[in-house]
Amino acid sequence: MNNLWFFDNVNLFNLLCPHKFKDYKACHNFDLYKKSDYVYFEQDAANKIYLIENGKIKIGYYTEQGTEVVKAILSKGELFGEKAILGEEKRNEFAQSIDNTTSICPVGIDTMHDLMRDNRTFSLKIYKFLGLRIKKLERRLQLILFKDTKTRFLEFMKELCEDYGYDCDKSGDKVIQHPYTQKDIASLIGTSRSNLNVLMNELKEENIIKFNRKEIRLLHKMAKTFAS
After folding, report:
1. φ and ψ at 32, to 5 degrees?
2. Residue-level pLDDT at 76
3. 181, 60 in Cβ contact below 8 A?
4. Alpha carbon of 34 to those of 161, 208, 218: distances in Å?
5. Domains, the chain, ordered by start
6. Per-residue pLDDT tens for 79-103?
């Protein structure tokens, strides 16, 4: 995917924040959030998009039974609320800070449309981003519908490798330092937390992974498969 989408793993805040544009620099600001603060709720008016200067944001929704479903965890440099660009009037998800030092740049949708109209390169970057986000969601949906839990988990690990992984030179392992809880991962791959815990322990016994609260280590054989 990185070969097709130059916009992946790019700091969107640095590229898109209005303070980079002379006409808008003086009239835009930043909002600060602490852990568990909501940026917006389901059914709120979709009249802004948001760029993350610092911190982490959880995107999700609640089922009719009140169960929280996490769609994504976003961090520094990323954008959310982007469906407002395409005409969404009401939010169908919530956005919540999961960091005590989250700083957000809100951008009114009219301002964003003005920037897109006046700057063709800027507009192209926005649409590239939207395409990438949709492509990732489609891939995750296909996995949930057609693949078993183990495959979904390993594919999600491959995605995490792209965003958070680095090589451990001595062992050949791939280390993933990520922001997700087991509950978040279970929700993202369409299984229960208990089933995920069983699966991860099985993979640990098979010497495929090691893990703790903040880190998953893909052992050499699996890391080599991901690299190929």
Report:
1. -110, 140
2. 81
3. no
4. 28, 37, 32
5. 12-144 (2.60.120.10), 148-227 (2.60.120.10)
6. 899 999 888 999 999 999 988 999 9
What tokens does 117 get?
A: 């109209």
Identity of residue 97: S
In whole angstroms, what is the distance from residue 158 CA to residue 175 CA? 11
Q: What is the pLDDT of residues 168-216, one digit of tens each?
A: 767 788 899 888 888 889 888 888 999 999 999 999 999 999 998 889 9
Distance of CA 12 to the CA centre of its chain: 12
Alpha-carbon span 190 to 192, nearest angstrom: 7
Reported as a single tens digit per residue, the pLDDT across 25-44 is 556 678 999 999 999 999 99
Sign of the dihedral defined by the CA atoms of residues 74, 115, 20, 18, in that order: negative
